[in-house]
């Protein structure tokens, strides 16, 4: 994988060897939602009934708390006390809050005043509100605090523990609109629209230019996309941005989503969604999720779907194939937004872990002592905890190997090659790469590869369709589209004159049009994935160049985004990217953990000290046609409905809650203690090492394993 990864944060940490993903049980991923809960800690499980509230249930912790939020004692809510919190009213919530919760209301008020005073600083603070087991009261408190103090964000963790912190949404809108306009906007977007007190809210933008108005639209879409929509209206000389809940086709049926935990094994997220869409008889576009998960693994994540009842989903859950399961089903009014998660929890087992390379004659064949080997693992673990790892995109981001070499920097990887062809608007080339066969010497050729070989050699779409297996949805969609559009037309000028896998330099407008339509049969999220894959590969290259040239210190010309909390989403800080100047370096204002690099797009800023590197790679990849590749309109492909805005990614990340657990591959092996690690005596074939850790969203476990073992683990 040398063409994907180049450097380590510390070359001196010793290397060890092992094998990962020997089976799906050895690589398990569980999504951590924005609330900090695991995706299995939401709602009832598949076989459990939905719990109903009862008057004799245990109530919340007494709200009369100490200054640190320490609970005093649990109290029980009677029917009369519970009923006053069943409905929330913006006109009475403040008086009810101050009368019934005087100590808490004072603490929240002080916290809100402090949040306003520090609104212009890159700082954050979290304070515990209390523990509330009664959902009715917890919901009422959440809405009340968010409405009275929109500068505060309220989060409920596992066990009913409520905490408050500075709200990044409010901070963003203050920078765009000012405090006076930001407060009612966040009140409406976070609370009021759910109560249907107001179906729309208007922002006066007479004082804003076109670029500033666009930033307001983008911020609302980023924070509340899928729930609230915006449009600019102008009456005479008065310009406003209207924020509203879209009208439903049937006004008698409120919008709702059925949200559930999807368990999958050895299947891509997109393919799993496609199979569910067929079973539920809805379009794949009706599904939403926070992120894609590994294919060769057991993964669990939250998924939401509209246009389907909860009963129908539960009915389908009993007829799912063995590689799919559904549980923890709830009904909600919000769809899931890509990137809105804290991260993922990984549970990984590495087999045959040892300190020698038995396959390479260049390595010493002498097996290290058990003490030395355990010391190696311990040193690697400690280094990861304290120093972190280069935040490379993992190989699963780039798809399969292909037998062609694209001009420029792109290696033999399918996804970034397809993405580059799409961005260059070379649609025919993108189709050719997607239908390239994966033929290995000495292995039998199956029907899928026969169909792809036939297509590459003859462009005979009908015969290729006959051979293509029915479960290859992507390839079938492309071929069926080509068949419809090429009916009665000659294909002699489309593929016969070229060698398989070559780049067609002269393509007719009709072939480009047909291939564009064929690519549109690929779901939008998958098309976007290919374009992002190219950006990801480019990010890996630039990250290596940055560290090779400038090292692990902050340098003038770097881009930085100061960290604001454990659950931050860096995509929310686009306006807070800061270019490091010489004074910042002298005063040590930032660390290497604040440094970010952009993924190319039409709305990102490039670091001045790496600008030449981006330009060189763009030219190598021929990613320009008479225009500057970093121009604001270049990463937009209207034919495929693609628009890459770009974002920022941290150069160095650290794992959290990293733990090691040695297991024995041989049941008779003894257990010993050494250097604080529980380890089995190593047999000749090695031992099994279990790792558990949490990573922020969009970070790859394969990258941390590469750093951990110095690329000695085979996945």
Write up this protein:
This protein is an alpha+beta fold. Among the domains are: 17-27 and 343-391 and 653-714, no CATH class; 250-339, TruD, catalytic domain (Pseudouridine synthase), CATH 3.30.2350. 36% of the residues are buried.
Q: What is the topology?
A:
Elements: E1 17-20, E2 27-33, H1 79-83, H2 93-100, H3 102-117, E3 126-131, H4 135-148, E4 152-156, E5 161-166, H5 168-177, H6 179-190, E6 200-204, H7 210-224, E7 229-235, E8 238-244, E9 257-265, H8 269-280, E10 287-289, E11 298-306, H9 310-316, E12 324-332, E13 341-354, H10 370-387, E14 389-390, H11 414-423, H12 427-434, H13 447-458, H14 461-467, H15 473-486, H16 492-496, H17 509-519, H18 524-550, E15 559-560, E16 578-579, H19 582-587, E17 595-599, H20 611-620, E18 636-637, E19 642-643, E20 647-650, E21 652-653, E22 656-663, E23 671-674, E24 677-680, E25 687-696, H21 701-709, E26 713-714
Parallel strand pairs: 1-26, 2-11
Antiparallel strand pairs: 1-13, 2-13, 3-5, 4-5, 6-8, 7-8, 9-11, 9-12, 10-11, 13-25, 14-21, 15-16, 15-17, 17-20, 18-19, 22-25, 23-24
Considering DSSP H and I runs of 4 or more, what fraction of the residues is helical? 25-40%
Distance between the termini: 11 Å
Q: What percentage of the residues does DSSP assign to strands (E)?
A: 15-25%
Low-confidence stretches: 46-80, 248-254, 358-365, 496-507, 666-684
Radius of gyration: 28 Å
Mean pLDDT: 78
Count every beta strand, where a strand is a DSSP E run of 2 or more residues: 26
Shape: globular
Q: What oligomeric assembly is this protein in?
A: single chain
Distinct helical segment count? 21
Broad structural category: alpha+beta
Largest sheet: 10 strands, mixed
């Amino acid at each position: 994988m040398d063409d994907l990864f180049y450097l380590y944060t510390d070359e001196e940490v010793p290397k060890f060897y092992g094998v990962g993903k020997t089976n799906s049980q050895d690589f398990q991923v569980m999504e951590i939602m924005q609330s900090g809960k695991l995706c299995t800690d939401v709602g009832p499980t598949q076989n459990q009934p939905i719990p109903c509230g009862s008057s004799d249930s245990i109530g919340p912790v007494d709200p009369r708390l100490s200054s640190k939020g320490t609970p005093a004692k649990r109290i029980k809510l009677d029917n009369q006390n519970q009923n006053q919190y069943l409905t929330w009213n913006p006109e009475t919530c403040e008086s009810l809050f101050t009368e019934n919760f005087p100590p808490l209301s004072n603490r929240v008020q002080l916290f809100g005043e402090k949040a306003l005073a520090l609104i212009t600083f890159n700082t954050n603070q979290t304070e515990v509100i209390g523990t509330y087991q009664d959902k009715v009261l917890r919901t009422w408190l959440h809405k009340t605090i968010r409405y009275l103090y929109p500068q505060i964000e309220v989060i409920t963790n596992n066990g009913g523990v409520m905490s408050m912190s500075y709200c990044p949404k409010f901070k963003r809108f203050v920078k765009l609109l000012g405090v006076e306009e930001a407060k009612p906007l966040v009140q409406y977007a976070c609370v009021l629209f759910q109560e249907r007190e107001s179906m729309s809210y208007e922002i006066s933008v007479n004082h804003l230019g076109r670029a500033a108005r666009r930033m307001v639209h983008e911020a609302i879409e980023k924070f509340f996309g899928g729930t609230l929509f915006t449009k600019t209206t102008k009456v005479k000389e008065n310009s406003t941005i209207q924020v509203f809940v879209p009208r439903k086709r049937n006004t008698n049926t409120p919008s709702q989503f059925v949200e559930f935990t999807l368990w999958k094994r050895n299947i891509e997220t997109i393919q799993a969604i496609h199979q569910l869409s067929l079973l539920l008889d809805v379009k794949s576009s009706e599904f939403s999720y926070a992120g894609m998960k590994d294919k060769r693994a057991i993964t669990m994540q939250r998924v939401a779907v509209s246009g389907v009842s909860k009963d129908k989903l539960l009915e389908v859950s009993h007829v799912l194939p063995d590689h799919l399961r559904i549980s923890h089903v709830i009904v909600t009014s919000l769809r899931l937004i890509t990137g809105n998660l804290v991260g993922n929890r990984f549970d990984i087992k590495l087999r045959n872990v040892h300190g020698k390379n038995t396959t390479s004659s260049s390595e010493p064949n002498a097996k290290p002592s058990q003490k030395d080997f355990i010391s190696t693992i311990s040193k690697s673990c400690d280094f990861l905890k304290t120093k972190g790892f280069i935040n490379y995109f993992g190989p699963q981001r780039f798809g399969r190997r292909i037998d062609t070499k694209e001009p420029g920097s792109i290696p033999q990887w399918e996804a970034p090659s397809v993405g580059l062809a799409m961005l260059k608007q070379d649609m025919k080339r993108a189709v050719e790469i997607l239908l390239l066969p994966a033929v290995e010497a000495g292995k039998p050729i199956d029907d899928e590869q026969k169909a792809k070989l036939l297509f590459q050699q003859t462009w005979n779409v009908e015969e290729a369709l006959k051979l293509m297996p029915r479960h290859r949805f992507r390839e079938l969609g492309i071929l069926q589209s080509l068949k419809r559009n090429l009916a009665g037309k000659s294909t002699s000028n489309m593929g016969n004159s070229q060698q398989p896998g070559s780049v067609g330099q002269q393509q007719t407008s009709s072939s480009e049009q047909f291939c564009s339509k064929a690519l549109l049969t690929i779901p939008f999220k998958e098309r976007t994935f290919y374009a992002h894959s190219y950006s990801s590969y480019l990010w890996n290259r630039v990250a290596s160049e940055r560290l090779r040239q400038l090292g692990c210190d902050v340098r003038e010309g770097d881009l930085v985004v100061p960290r604001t909390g454990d659950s931050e989403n860096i995509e929310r800080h686009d306006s807070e990217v800061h270019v490091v100047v010489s004074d910042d370096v002298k005063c040590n204002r930032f660390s290497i953990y604040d440094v970010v690099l952009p993924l190319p797009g039409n709305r990102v800023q490039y670091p001045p000290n790496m600008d030449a590197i981006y330009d060189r790679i763009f030219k190598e990849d021929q990613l320009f046609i008479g225009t500057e590749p970093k121009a604001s309109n270049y990463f937009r492909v209207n034919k495929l409905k693609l628009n890459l805005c770009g974002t920022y990614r941290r150069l160095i990340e650290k794992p959290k809650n990293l733990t090691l657990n040695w297991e024995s591959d041989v049941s008779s092996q003894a257990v010993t203690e050494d250097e604080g690690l529980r380890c089995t005596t190593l047999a000749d074939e090695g031992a099994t090492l279990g790792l558990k850790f949490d990573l922020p969203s969009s970070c790859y476990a394969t990258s941390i394993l590469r750093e951990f073992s110095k690329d000695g683990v085979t996945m």
